[in-house]
Amino acid sequence: MTDNQIKLLEELKSMVIHDKTAYPMLAFGYVIKKNDSTYDELSQREEYEVMKAFGEWGLS
Fold first, then answer.
1. pLDDT in tens, 5-39
2. How far is residue 44's CA from residue 48's CA, in Å, rounded to a whole number?
3. What is the number of domains present in the chain?
4. Is residue 12 exposed (0-12), middle (13-18) or buried (19+ Cβ within 10 Å)?
5. Which key words are in the record (predicted)?
């Protein structure tokens, strides 16, 4: 994963861990809005890779 992907993934994880009421799907919108420039640099494939990694982490 690229540095930008890791940054977004770690922020997604942190949001769900620290805010027990956070809905995983809503976390995406919040993190993307907060990190517009980082998110804009991802290709569509890289976006899917972040979603996949977040899903795998959440199910583990």
1. 999 999 999 888 887 656 888 888 888 888 778 88
2. 6
3. 1
4. buried
5. Plasmid
Alpha-carbon distance 35 to 29, whole Å? 10
Separation of alpha carbons 52 and 47, rounded Å: 9
Token duo for residue 59: 């199910």
Yes or no: say if 41 and 6 are a contact pair by the CB < 8 Å rule. Answer: no
Burial class (CB in 10 A: 0-12, 13-18, 19+), 31: buried
- Note the pLDDT of residue 6: 95
User: For residue 60, what pLDDT band results from cuts at 50, 70 and 90?
Assistant: very high
